[in-house]
């Protein structure tokens, strides 16, 4: 498969590798065009379907993870054309279908749809140069890919309101304090750290990894009692896996486990 707006590679040494996707429209600060989002969706689904891949890292350039949806494409739309064509809707949530972890490695601007895309990843590792924002209000619109919903869940109501209503950007240190990102690293270490995190995850049992992702996401949808109940069922279910015997057996034998992802 050849792509024009993204770069797709495989990284890692172990039996399960990391799928690395780099947003690549540098002149437009990786503005998320329709073609880019189509390509991103295809690449994500292909890695998700590949048994040799354990984890996916999504990144941009040093200057921008992504500066948002492509503004020139949006400008001419009317309500009717936006409504009838489902303006930039069809390919924006493909990432949510991915069952393997997707780590966002963010340097530079993550604005508007770029910030929303990063928030749709499972966790964000930020370079110390990262800047997050939802500046749609400056364009006379509002976020359309979950910014008003995911940002308050990530950083709380007050900071979300502040960012959404004033369009101010949050730097990496503030984003880490607010819980938007899991860690901040020096910019020149960003890919090393993100790929190392992916490599660590790749070494664990694939079904455990996928279930943890599913359950953490359930925490945002279900009441606590229901989430804990589903966790309990999955916990019991894993005692039917080969990897549970291998993991616990390896611990007792003081050796590294060799998971078979089954
Ligand atoms: N779209 C297209 N081009 C963009 C762009 C964008 N979002 N952001 C930047 N560029 C282009 C600039 O036009 C410029 O192009 P040239 O003039 O060189 O041809 C080039 O990137 C470099 O930008 P600047 O010259 O402006 O660079 P600066 O360093 O001075 O400023 C900046 C960087 C990121 C602060 C600034 O470019 C900026 O404010 N950009 C716009 C950020 C923004 O407003 N983003 C939100 C866009 S609205 C939905 C899904 C998603 C969305 C909505 C609905 N559904 C599923 C329904 C998302 C909406 C949005 O993201």
UniProtKB/TrEMBL annotation:
<dbReference type="InterPro" id="IPR018376">
    <property type="entry name" value="Enoyl-CoA_hyd/isom_CS"/>
</dbReference>
<dbReference type="InterPro" id="IPR029045">
    <property type="entry name" value="ClpP/crotonase-like_dom_sf"/>
</dbReference>
<comment type="similarity">
    <text>Belongs to the enoyl-CoA hydratase/isomerase family.</text>
</comment>
<dbReference type="InterPro" id="IPR014748">
    <property type="entry name" value="Enoyl-CoA_hydra_C"/>
</dbReference>
<dbReference type="GO" id="GO:0004300">
    <property type="term" value="F:enoyl-CoA hydratase activity"/>
</dbReference>
<protein>
    <submittedName>
        <fullName>Enoyl-CoA hydratase</fullName>
        <ecNumber>4.2.1.17</ecNumber>
    </submittedName>
</protein>
<dbReference type="Pfam" id="PF00378">
    <property type="entry name" value="ECH_1"/>
</dbReference>
<dbReference type="InterPro" id="IPR001753">
    <property type="entry name" value="Enoyl-CoA_hydra/iso"/>
</dbReference>
<keyword id="KW-0456">Lyase</keyword>
């Amino acid at each position: 498969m050849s792509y024009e707006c993204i770069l797709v590679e495989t990284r890692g040494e172990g039996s399960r590798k990391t799928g690395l996707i780099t947003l690549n429209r540098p002149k437009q600060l990786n503005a998320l065009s329709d073609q880019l989002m189509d390509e991103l969706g295809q690449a994500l689904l292909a890695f998700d379907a590949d048994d040799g891949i354990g984890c996916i890292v999504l990144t941009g350039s040093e200057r921008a993870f992504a500066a948002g949806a492509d503004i020139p494409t949006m400008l001419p739309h009317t309500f009717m054309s936006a409504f009838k064509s489902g303006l930039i809707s069809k390919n924006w949530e493909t990432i949510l279908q991915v069952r393997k972890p997707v780590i966002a490695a963010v340097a530079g601007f993550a604005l508007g749809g770029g910030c929303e895309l990063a928030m749709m990843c499972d966790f964000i590792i930020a370079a110390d140069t990262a800047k997050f924002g939802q500046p749609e209000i400056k364009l006379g619109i509002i976020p359309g890919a979950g910014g008003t919903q995911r940002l308050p869940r990530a950083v709380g109501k007050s900071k979300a309101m502040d960012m959404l209503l004033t369009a101010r950007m949050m730097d990496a240190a503030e984003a880490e304090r607010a819980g938007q990102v899991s860690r901040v690293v020096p910019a020149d270490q960003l890919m090393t750290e993100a790929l190392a995190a992916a490599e660590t995850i790749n070494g664990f049992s694939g079904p455990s990894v996928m279930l943890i992702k599913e359950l953490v996401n359930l925490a945002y949808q279900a009441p606590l009692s229901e989430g804990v109940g589903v966790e309990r069922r999955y916990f019991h279910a894993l005692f039917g896996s080969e990897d549970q015997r291998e993991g616990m057996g390896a611990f007792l034998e003081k050796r590294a486990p060799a998971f078979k992802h089954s």
